Task: structure prediction
Amino acid sequence: MNTTAQQTEFLSWKIIPARLTATQTAWFLGFKPEEITLLVAAGLLKPLGHPPRNSTKFFAAETLEQLRRDEKWLARASEAICNYWRESNARKQKTRGITGGRNPFDKRISSATSSRGVEQK
Result:
């Protein structure tokens, strides 16, 4: 059974189990499974108990139901994910030194304008 079929089956259940795995939590809240780790790291989602770092995390369905209906929490969670990727991409660009403060297309633009007889700055 593929992931989409599993997700569809899970979301069709009339009674949700009391505790959900990270993947089921993602499906329930409308996030991607890999984003659950980001939400836990940001302190916006708390697993049940005190699980070791490399163990399966479970989340309380009752708490998730409340979060699912909380528009402010959903906005904060979405913003936390956006911030993570924004910072991650900025770190990648900084370590690569891609632009060095210049637009990578400057050379192409300046060569195109010089071929038309337009003065370069």
Summary: The first helix runs from residue 3 to 12.
